[in-house]
Amino acid sequence: MQQSDEISNLIKALSKIQGFGNRSAVRATINLISNKSEKLTPLIKALIDVEKNISTCPICGNFDTCTPCSICTNPKRDSKVLCIVPDISSLWAMERGDIFNGKYHITGGILSAINGIEPSDLNLANLPHRVKTEGFEEIILALPATIDAKITSHYIINLLKDTGVKITELAHGVPIGGELDYLDEGTISEALRQRKSI
Ligand SMILES: [Zn+2]
After folding, report:
1. In the sheet that 196-197 helps form, which strands lie side by side, from edge to edge?
2. From ligand 1's centre to the CA of 56, what distance in Å?
């Protein structure tokens, strides 16, 4: 029996999601169609809500219902400290439990010779201008403890050389190869408290 276009289109769409292979997409499709009212309908509603209401902040790269995002525009946040994170999930990890009260800049990844990720692929070109115009006094690098992330840190340090801004990095605490998203709040908080100048 041949699958209907509707089913194969859903499998194809799901299999494009990062972390989903074809097998997971097939399983999810069966699960969704078998449980339309409990799973498929709420998923459709959530997807439509996100498509309609969520956008990427043009300043920091965060997702929010307003642009610029509610972190960038919150006057109660410390506008002297900018934390550089590789991705949204790291920002969300920092935001869990009120660990950090400054602003963010999402790079959108880290440099990688093996994966062909170059500086122009990251959201970094505007960073020196942002640091100067917004008047940040400290930049905290919250990148994973990998060799590629070290190379990325050096690139950012070099990029910001002329701004004269103080640059620090999270203390370890952060396990080798570990990403912020997998750390509990206590570990992130400690790594932030013990951050070191570089
Ligand atoms: Zn923002």
Report:
1. 103-106, 81-85, 138-141, 166-169, 196-197
2. 8
Is residue 140 within a helix (H) or strand (E), and if so which, with residue range?
Answer: strand 138-141
User: What spacing in Å lies between the alpha carbon of 156 and ligand 1's midpoint?
Assistant: 19
Q: How far is CA 37 from the centre of its chain?
A: 32
* N- to C-terminal Cα separation, the chain: 63
pLDDT in tens, the chain (198 residues): 678 999 999 999 999 998 899 999 999 999 999 999 999 999 999 999 999 999 999 999 999 999 999 999 999 999 999 999 999 988 988 898 788 999 999 999 999 999 999 999 999 999 999 999 999 999 999 988 888 999 999 999 999 999 999 999 888 645 545 567 777 777 778 788 878 888
CA of 182 to the centre of ligand 1 (A): 23
Report CA(138)–ligand 1 centroid distance (Å): 17
Cα 116 to ligand 1 centroid, rounded to whole Å: 27
Q: Is there a single domain that holds both residue 139 and residue 75? A: yes
120 and 138 fall within a common domain: yes
Q: 13 in a domain, yes or no? A: yes
| Number of domains present in the structure of the chain | 2
Could you tell me if residue 77 is inside a domain?
yes
